[in-house]
Amino acid sequence: MSNEGGSGVNRALNAPPSFEEAGNLRQKVRASGMDPDYWYAVEEVPRIRPGTVVEVVFWKRSIALYRAADGSFHALENRCAHRQLKLSLGLVEGCRLVCAYHGWKYAPNGELAETAHERIGKSFPRVSIRTYPVKVRYGLVWLFPGDPALAEERTIPDIPELEGPGRWACVPLSFTWSAHHSMIIDNVSDFTHAFLHRKYRPFEGAKLTRCETVGDDVHVAYDTSVGRGRISGLFVDRKRVDTNSMKLCFQYPYQWSNTDEQIRHWLFVLPVDERTTRAFFLFYFKSLKIPFLPVHIPRFAMTGVLTIANRVSIGPLLAQDGFAVEAEQEGYERHWDARPLEFNPIVRAFQDVTVRKWQDYLARADGDGYAGG
Questions:
Q1: DSSP-assigned beta bridge partners for residue 174
Q2: Can you give the chain as a three-state secondary structure string?
Q3: Are 161 and 167 in contact (CB under 8 A)?
Q4: What is the rounded CA–CA span in Å between residue 372 and residue 181?
Q5: Nearest to 130 by CA among 64, 76, 66, 52
Q6: Torsion of CA 65, 68, 71, 72, to 10 degrees
Q7: Which pLDDT tens digit goes with each residue over 91-148?
Q8: In angstroms, what CA-CA distances link 108 with 71, 74, 83?
Q9: Is 33 exposed, middle or buried (0-12, 13-18, 19+ CB in 10 A)?
Q10: From CA 163, how far away is CA 161, in angstroms rounded?
Q11: What is the Cα–Cα distance from 108 to 30, expressed in whole angstroms?
Q12: What pTM value is reported for the model?
């Protein structure tokens, strides 16, 4: 291997190059983080019960996410100001997060509110740690890991089908995969990998009809046969739904797809580090039919049907993608200096946007002294 484009240390260790060392687009995108000045889904709401705390990580930055006794969510820098223990190792008392070591108690605004021991010597100075804006929407908890002054300017994607009394059924799915976030974004919109899904057949015979970058969005369209699986295909009413084409978009940092305004999905990635990503999938359907009958499943039963579908069809299908991107990550780490061979133009378009956005963020952070940490 030539290992060109890496530092002397990287050449010695045969490790992939850093963003600054990268010699081509593939190397740059695989070392790129994501702009923290967006809202990121970090957990499913039911997984955090009132009175509990969990650790979430955004691009190597640890955050303690906790749910107070009243059900409200709060997020603090994951360290006690005293001895730097992770606060996610502690517990929740009412609306306060308590360090496991000395019992220092932090209020939702990040200020030290109380200690469990006497003050020895001088009085405690005013102590506070960083907080992060938190919202709940679509069954997910969202954090804004960037400049808090921008939190109200940026918005969580609007999904009108999932709001209001007539909302469509949706049961979120989440995975943690040992793969860079760009590999997952590439995967979900690159329909040249139909062979991987030959058992479930979510799409077949894809012909790319659009690939256009508009600002920070990459718009994609395929003529393709959608939802032809042996089981899943029985639930689609092809007399009412055109399943011969699909629109997709990488709406940085999110991704969505739309089949005839009847079958839709969003993907929200949480970049943990260069080789770990959490992926949150929202699949939602306007309606589904009862197999072998010209009758649609009642709206009240759709959530139960999707829960079962996630277990027997959608989840196993996505697990195949997880297998593929994790194997791709391992392959990249071994052969990062191999000649890039890519035949679908959407992949390069996605990677161009990801690299540009990361470069813009790094320049902005250097310019104003705010690194988001």
A1: 280
A2: CCCCCCCHHHHHHCCCCCCCCCCCHHHHHHCCCCCCCCCEEEEEHHHCCCCEEEEEEECCEEEEEEECCCCCEEEEECCCCCCCCCHHHCEEECCEEECCCCCCEECCCCEEEECCCCCCCCCCCCCECCEECEEEECCEEEECCCCHHHCCCCCCCCCHHHCCCCCCEECCEEEEECCCHHHHHHHHHCHHHHHHHCCCCCEEEEEEEEEEEECCEEEEEEEEEECCCCCHHHHCCCCCCCCCEEEEEEECCEEEEEECCCEEEEEEEEEEECCEEEEEEEEEECCCECCCCCCECCHHHHHHHHHHHHHHHHHHHHHHHHHHHHHHHHHHHHCCCCCCCCCCHHHHHHHHHHHHHHHHHHHHHHHHCCCCC
A3: yes
A4: 19
A5: 76
A6: -60
A7: 999 999 999 999 999 999 999 988 877 665 566 678 899 999 999 999 999 999 999 9
A8: 13, 6, 20
A9: buried
A10: 6
A11: 36
A12: 0.90
Please check whether residue 117 is in contact with residue 78, taking contact to mean a CB–CB distance below 8 angstroms: no
Question: Which tokens in the block code for residue 115?
Answer: 């200690």
CA-based torsion, 242, 243, 249, 253: positive or negative: positive
C-alpha dist (Å) from residue 65 to 3, 157, 255, 282:
41, 21, 25, 22
| CA 107 vs CA 51, 214, 229: distances in Å | 14, 43, 51
pLDDT per residue over 212-263, tens digit each? Answer: 999 999 999 999 887 666 555 556 665 676 778 899 999 999 999 999 888 8
Q: Which domains does the chain have, with CATH numbers?
A: 40-143 (2.102.10.10), 160-355 (3.90.380.10)
Task: Evaluate whether 136 touches 142 at the Cβ level (below 8 Å).
Answer: yes
Residue 345 one-letter amino acid: P
Name residues whose C-beta falls within 8 Å of residue 115's C-beta, 6 or more positions apart in sequence. Answer: 102, 103, 104, 105, 124
Give the torsion through C-alpha atoms of 334, 23, 4, 9, to 10 deg.
-70
Closest by Cα among 279, 277, 302, 282 to 290: 302
Which amino acid is present at 154?
Answer: R
Query: Around Cβ 23, how many Cβ atoms within 10 Å?
Result: 14
